[in-house]
Structure formats: structure tokens, C-alpha cells
Amino acid sequence: MAPLVLIRPGPPAARWIAVSCKYNLRASRRALHTARGVATNITAQEPVADFLKSPGAIPIPPPVERNEPQGRKEAIKQAKPFSDFLTDTFNRQHDYLRISITERCNLRCLYCMPEEGVPLSPPSHLLTSPEIFYIASLFVSQGVTKIRLTGGEPTVRRDIVPLMQSIGTLRSKGLRELTLTTNGVSLHRKLDSMVEAGLTGVNLSLDTLDPFQFQIMTRRNGFDAVMKSIDRILEMKRLGADLKLKINCVVMRGLNERDIIPFIEMGREKDVEVRFIEYMPFDGNKWSQGKMLPYEAMLNIIRAKYPDLRKVKGHKNDTSKTYEVPGFVGKLGFITSMTHNFCGTCNRLRITSDGNLKVCLFGNAEVSLRDLLRKDNNGQPMDQEAFDAIKQIEIDRRRGALGDDTVLGWGERERELLEVIGAAVKRKKEKHAGMGELENMKNRPMILIGG
């Protein structure tokens, strides 16, 4: 038997977790399949609801048994064609969904939010936990295999862990990855529970390794807390947790390009991928082409220090051009939305925290799923009772009481949602506007889109 190690979650947690030296993630994920209760309520700050606690709640499916190679071949042979609802007119298949779960944030980053902040939506306009779970279920039923929770800052949402637990149950329906984009300030306090809930990757936004510069760029304190979160992720990875870490750094000319080399040095001995992002225009962030440092300029800075820098072959849907320095553990990448777009292989869709579907980050066209979702609830947020009613329809359908052939059993409403989603995806353009057009295009502030 492997020796046991006591790992203490970061304060203020008051419990100890016993795990093997290998940090068997599969064992921790089995926590999803317990009868653990989830207590949440609709509050004035964030609209949440309890949909796992009640005795009649949606049952958590048992763990999926891994097939032998022959079983996998058979599954591939019998696999259904990818959903037409998520396929656009350029044959791009959208299997990656980003869901913003809050508009709130505990930082005020220069490129993301105006200094004065942004007007927040009334709580009733934001998606509740049951609504988020239903939308996630609907997209997974159509072929989405990766879900990323964003914000605002998603860790400030009080029920983020139970929400992740519920979404994690969709693994039995085809979900493969459940990831998070965060600024890391509060992450270290919730990370252990998130990994137990099925978290597979963290994209952590950090634009400088200088505490003083951090305060300038975020207009807040918090550098030490962010570094604590990074250290905790790396510690869990050393213990065997299958948890990817990527650090996203928005580079702004004259402000933080001197941090490029220190970020690369971070990867000398640490298993982290640092991705340098070209500064992008959004409402309120005072973008100008003079402030944007193109990735070729970043490459020149790096090659002056590391002339043996080399390209790494990536996946066709990668947003990042990946490189490595020979001998370094970590990698680096460039997200080149402004100078070299990757629209041709885009597989991403976005849901804003107020329930709008955006098919392109830089597009200003949006369509509301929230209003259609609430149509049978007099336009009101879907609370526990309303969600249970939907669940009962699904139970009745499975018992043969209904002849409805929709995937989730919500009848006409489900079909309408899919038709609206499909129509929006079909309207997606071949590529987003060019740099000059984007500068003047009306769009939401980044904080209200979801990172």
C-alpha cells in the first residue's frame, strides 16, 4: 500500500485531505459520485440555486468504465456525425464552450475593465446555477467536449465549487475537459475542492512578476495571493494531479515587455506554459496600435536571449503558437489575435453571464438564450422548483410517458433553443474584422464578455 501524505488545503480551510503520494486524481474525482449535498440560494449578489441537494434531484451518474481498445474502435465506428447545430457554414465544428458565470471581479486590469468599473446587471438578469447547468448539458449533448468557466473573476462566485461538481457529472455524457480562467487571487483557497470536482486545467492571468507593477496594471493588491495559487497548482502537479497550468500575459508596449524574459525563466524548472497575448481592443480599455506589441517583436526579444528557441507542433484548434527553449521544463506561446488571426480553425462559442450567445469574441452580434430558457417560467430566473419541473419531464420521457424525442426531454423549448443556437452559429463570419475596424467597433468591455 502506498504511504499516505497529509495535504492541507490553503487557509482558511480547516480540514486535512489524505491522499496517496501519487495524488490519485481518479480517486478524488469519484467524490463527484457521492451523495454530497450542495446548498445554494438565489441571493442579491449572485443568482444561484440548489439543484443537487433535494431527494428528487437529478441523479449523479456512476463513473464511466474505460473501454478496451476494441471497445474504442467500436465506439468510433458507431459515433454519430457532429451536430449540425454547432457546425457553421465554413464547416468549423464548435466543441468548446466558454461560460461566464459572473460579471464581478476583484481586480481592475487596464486591458479588461475601465478604471471606474462597469455597471453590473441586475441579479435577475444573470444566469442561475440550474440554467448554467442546463445550457452546459444541452451543448454537451450536441458534441461539446470542453467547457471553460470564466468571468469576471469566476472564483468570486460563492457557489462555484458546487456548480463545477454538477457540470463535472457531464463527463458521462461526453465532456472531457472542465477548465477555469482566473486571476488567481482567491484560487488557492478553493483549488483542492475544484480538482475533486473534476477541474482539469487552469488559465491564470498574470501580466507581471513585479509586485509593484502588478498593482499598477491591476489597480489592486494581490500579487502574493496569485503566486500562492501558482505554487499550489505546481505542488499538486508534483503530487500527480493531472492539472494543466497556463499563465496568460497581456503584453503592452512601454508597460510590461520587460517581464517577457522573467516569465520564460519561470519555465526553466517549472511545468508551466506562459502565453503572451497581443493587446486587444474592447470598450473602455483605451486600446491603440502604439500600445500593442506584435508577436514578432516579442519573438525578437526572446531570441536575443535564447537564440535556440524552437517551434513546437500544436493542435489544429490551438489559439497559441507554441515554442520551447531546449532544456527548459516549461513552454511559451503567443496568442496573435491582432496580427495573425486563427479564425479558420476556431471551435469556440461563448455564453455571457447574462445568458447571451456570442459566436465570436470580436463580433458584436449576440442572441439571448436566457430569455428563451425562461419563456415557460414567465421570464423569471429558473429556480429549484422550475428546474425540477424540467427534470420531471425527462424522467417521464425515460419511462415512456412522453413521446418526445429531444435529447434532454424538454420538448419544444429544447428544439427552439437548438434552432436559435444553430442559426447563430450559421451566421458566424469566416474571420473577424481587421485591426483598424476592431479599434472602432462597438463591443462589450472584456469583463462583460468572459475571458
Protein model, in words:
- The protein contains 14 helices and 14 strands.
- It has 451 residues and is an alpha/beta fold.
- Helix 5 packs parallel to helix 7.
- The two termini are 43 Å apart.
List the helices and strands and how they pair.
Elements lengths: L3 E4 L9 E4 L4 H5 L39 H10 L17 E5 L28 H13 L4 E5 L9 H9 L8 E6 L4 H10 L4 E5 L5 H8 L4 H16 L5 E8 L8 H7 L6 E6 L16 H11 L4 E2 L8 E5 L6 E5 L12 E4 L4 E3 L8 E2 L1 H4 L10 H15 L12 H16 L8 H6 L5 H4 L2
Parallel strand pairs: 3-4, 3-12, 4-5, 5-6, 6-7, 7-8, 8-11
Antiparallel strand pairs: 1-2, 9-10, 10-11, 12-13, 13-14
Helix pairs in contact: 5-7
Structure summary:
The protein is of the alpha/beta class. The chain has 14 helices and 14 strands. β5, α5 and β6 form a beta-alpha-beta unit.
Distance from N terminus to C terminus (CA atoms, Å) equals 43 Å
Main β sheet profile: 12 strands, mixed
For the secondary structure, the number of strands is 14
Runs in which pLDDT lies below 50 for 5 or more consecutive residues are 1-68
Q: State the helicity in percent bands.
A: 25-40%
Count of helical stretches: 14
**Sheet/helix structural class:** alpha/beta
Mean pLDDT: 80
Strand order of the largest sheet: 9-10-11-8-7-6-5-4-3-12-13-14
Categorize the overall geometry. globular
Radius of gyration: 22 Å
Organism: Lepidopterella palustris CBS 459.81
Cofactor: [4Fe-4S] cluster
Domain Radical SAM core: 89-316
Catalytic activity: GTP + AH2 + S-adenosyl-L-methionine = (8S)-3',8-cyclo-7,8-dihydroguanosine 5'-triphosphate + 5'-deoxyadenosine + L-methionine + A + H(+)
